[in-house]
């Protein structure tokens, strides 16, 4: 066996694996990965060239092996069929001396297909080199094999790209992407005008038509526009809104968006200190309220919109041209630094989500949708915008109905067709009789198995998963009676979930990894937090030159036959009653009270928040239970 002088030409990962294999066999290797380096390289006359097709070779007289992969499309959602090819010859003449068609990969996991392909082509090439090292005439005399059967031939980077594919990530729906090009507020304006005489909002016995809602929004804009005339051109114009649920609240949201500004919902039940921090951190320039907000009487600019006169007018809700990538919504979630963090979503983010969701749950003009969530909770997006875009009726639950399961069920049974309710609430609802819903959505936490078994029999029961940073949700799946409560379903239209290991490589089937989210739902980033943006919104290279922007969720999951199964978190964040809770934020708040010198917060197995305090300061002498 001779020791061969081999020049490897190309930069695919597969060629790197081949280099390791040949080096272990004792051959002398040189590696060329750059076109300029290749063009200026002086080849030895005895060298054997092996290339992967990623660089252009002009040394026509040299003996070489050309490694390629043939690709053919399968069914719509399957991985491609791969055919491994080994050509021998020079630039002028080549003969196919080895060909291997890979078997189907039943899991649809590209990592598993790529590993099989890489191992097979390395073995194929190493075998040809081994024969050549024993017989100098072998390659020239090797018999030809049957011609390729593939639709096209590619360089070996095609194998690298397969690494990031998965059958459940084949979600392309071009029509929804076209719809998402139209800003959300433009679509809302068209819908409100089109459905003018239909009921838009219902509060108990009070009904608000689309025409009245439109006029109310325009009336608010009359007073709002002078307050935001001097906006900063290079930063979002953020407008806070904090008031109990009412027609004015929903009209205020539309008014803000129609002015080209970003609406920032605040929950009136949250501590005033938290509300003030959010307003200041977001750079909000105005607070819309109901006349009773404590911050409105301070120095913060505010506008009472509770008693604005409605004037029927032909004035358009669209007061400025809005781009699809412009920010339109800011939502604050719990933060690891001890303070909440603001997530910025664009018109395109919400336009794509609403178009997909309406189609997924079959919203129409005849739908009656429950509005349950507080507006500072991201699931409110599920309730509000798809409903108004469909010309449907949004039935708003009052505070008594939100707190009393019996009253809520009574409301639902009065003809509600669609509802989103968190798992914690579903576990205490009386479910002896069907709710009468067509579609019930849940998410934000794990649903109890007995709840799944009961509800899956009576309606289409959907589990929705996704962080605020990816526009509310990224996967969806319909529960069946025997469904696992850890199954998140599959990625939604035009979106992908990449499950990666610590080296940012896709994991094998049934192997835990971190969930990275790609697609039109990935938000604009965090408000005024460049360090966190750099940490969580990352650029991923997909096995070649292609790069995508992804959101690093921190959730751990794995691919299974039925979808993605949730395994846990990579940090301390937990979900309690659907809300994201960071123990560090609670610790920060307790420390800032200066009542105790030592503070620790943990979450126990029952998802209770436990605070441990020690060493009271001189300013506080009471028991810990009174903190």
Question: What does the model show?
Answer:
There is one protein chain. The chain is an alpha/beta fold and 627 residues long. The protein is 28% helix and 27% strand. The strands form seven sheets. Strands 18, 19, 20, 21, 22, 23, 24, 26, 27 and 28 form a ten-stranded mixed β-sheet that branches. Strands 1, 2, 3, 4, 5, 6 and 7 form a seven-stranded mixed β-sheet that branches. A four-stranded mixed β-sheet has the order 9-8-17-16. It is elongated and about 95 Å long. The protein starts with a strand and ends in an 11-residue tail after the last strand.
Q: What would a concise description of this structure say?
A:
Helices cover 28% and strands 27% of the residues. The chain is an alpha/beta fold.
First-to-last CA distance? 80 Å
Low-confidence spans: none
Strand percentage: 25-35%
Round the Cα radius of gyration to an integer and report it: 30 Å
List how many beta strands DSSP finds. Answer: 32
How many strands, what sense, and barrel or not for the largest sheet?
10 strands, mixed
Mean pLDDT: 91
From the helix content, strand content and strand pairing, which structural class follows? alpha/beta
Number of helices: 18
The helical percent reads 25-40%
Shape: elongated
SSE layout and pairing:
Blueprint lengths: L4 E5 L3 H12 L3 E5 L2 H5 L8 E4 L12 E9 L8 E9 L4 E8 L8 H25 L3 H4 L10 E3 L2 H6 L11 H7 L3 H11 L4 E5 L2 E4 H15 L13 E4 L5 H12 L3 E4 L6 H11 L3 E4 L12 E3 L22 E7 L7 E6 H14 L7 E4 L8 H11 L2 E4 L2 H5 L1 H8 L5 E3 L2 H4 L12 E5 L5 H7 L4 E6 L9 E4 L8 E5 L4 E5 L12 E6 L6 E2 L3 H7 E5 L5 E14 L2 E7 L4 E3 L2 E3 L1 H10 L3 E8 L5 E8 L11
Parallel strand pairs: 1-2, 1-3, 3-4, 8-17, 10-11, 10-12, 12-13, 16-17, 18-19, 19-20
Antiparallel strand pairs: 4-5, 4-7, 5-6, 8-9, 14-15, 15-25, 20-21, 21-22, 22-28, 23-24, 24-27, 26-27, 27-28, 29-30, 31-32
């Amino acid at each position: 066996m001779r020791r061969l002088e081999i020049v490897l030409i190309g930069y695919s990962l597969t060629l790197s694996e081949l280099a390791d294999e040949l080096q272990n066999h004792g051959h002398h290797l040189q590696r060329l990965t750059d076109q300029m380096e290749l063009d200026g390289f002086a080849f030895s006359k005895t060298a054997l060239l092996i290339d992967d097709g990623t660089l252009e070779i002009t040394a026509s007289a040299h003996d070489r092996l050309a490694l390629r992969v043939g690709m053919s499309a399968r069914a719509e959602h399957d991985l491609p069929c791969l055919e491994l090819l080994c050509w021998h010859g020079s630039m002028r003449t080549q003969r196919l001396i080895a060909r291997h068609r890979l078997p189907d990969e039943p899991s649809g996991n590209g990592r598993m297909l790529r590993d099989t392909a890489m191992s097979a082509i390395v073995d194929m090439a190493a075998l040809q080199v081994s024969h050549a090292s024993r017989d100098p005439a072998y390659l020239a005399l090797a018999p030809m094999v049957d011609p390729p059967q593939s639709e096209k031939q590619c360089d070996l980077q095609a194998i690298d790209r397969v690494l990031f594919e998965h059958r459940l990530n084949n979600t392309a729906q071009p029509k929804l992407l076209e719809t998402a090009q139209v800003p959300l507020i433009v679509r809302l304006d068209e819908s409100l005008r089109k459905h003018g005489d239909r009921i838009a909002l219902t509060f108990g016995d009070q009904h608000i038509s689309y025409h009245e809602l439109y006029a109310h929004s325009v009336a608010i804009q009359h007073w709002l526009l002078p307050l935001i005339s001097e906006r900063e051109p290079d930063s979002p114009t953020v407008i806070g809104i904090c008031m109990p649920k009412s027609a004015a609240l929903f009209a205020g949201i539309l008014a803000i968006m129609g002015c080209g500004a970003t609406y920032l919902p605040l929950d009136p039940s949250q501590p005033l200190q938290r509300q003030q921090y959010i307003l200041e951190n977001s750079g909000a320039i105005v607070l819309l309220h109901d006349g009773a907000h404590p911050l409105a009487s301070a120095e913060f600019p505010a506008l009472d919109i509770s008693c604005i006169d409605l004037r029927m007018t032909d004035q358009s809700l669209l007061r400025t041209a809005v781009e699809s990538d412009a920010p339109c919504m800011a939502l604050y979630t719990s933060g690891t630094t001890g303070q909440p963090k603001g997530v910025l979503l664009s018109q395109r983010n919400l336009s794509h989500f609403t178009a997909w969701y309406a189609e997924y749950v079959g919203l129409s003009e005849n739908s009656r949708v429950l509005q349950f969530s507080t507006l500072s909770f991201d699931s409110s997006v599920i309730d509000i915008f798809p409903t108004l875009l469909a010309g449907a009726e949004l039935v708003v639950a009052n505070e008594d109905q939100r707190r009393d399961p019996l009253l809520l069920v009574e409301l639902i049974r009065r003809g509600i067709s669609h509802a989103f309710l968190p798992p914690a609430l579903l576990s205490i609802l009386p479910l002896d009789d069907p709710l009468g819903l067509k579609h019930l959505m849940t998410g934000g936490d794990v649903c109890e198995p007995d709840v799944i078994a009961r509800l899956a029999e009576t309606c289409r029961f959907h589990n929705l998963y996704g962080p605020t940073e990816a526009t509310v949700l990224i996967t969806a799946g319909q529960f069946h009676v025997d469904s696992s409560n850890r199954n998140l379903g599959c990625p939604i239209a035009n979106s992908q979930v990449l499950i990666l290991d610590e080296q940012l490589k896709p994991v094998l089937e049934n192997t835990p990894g971190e969930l990275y989210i790609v697609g039109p739902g990935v938000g604009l980033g965090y408000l005024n937090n460049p360090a966190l943006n750099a940490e969580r919104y990352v650029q991923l290279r997909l096995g070649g030159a292609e790069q995508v922007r992804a959101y690093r969720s921190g959730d751990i999951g794995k691919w299974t036959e039925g979808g993605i199964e949730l395994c846990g978190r990579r940090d301390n964040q937990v979900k309690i009653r659907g809300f994201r809770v960071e123990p560090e934020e609670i610790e920060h708040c307790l420390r800032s009270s200066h009542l105790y010198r030592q503070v620790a917060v943990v979450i126990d197995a029952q998802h209770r928040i436990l605070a441990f305090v020690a060493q009271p300061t001189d300013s506080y002498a009471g028991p810990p239970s009174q903190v």
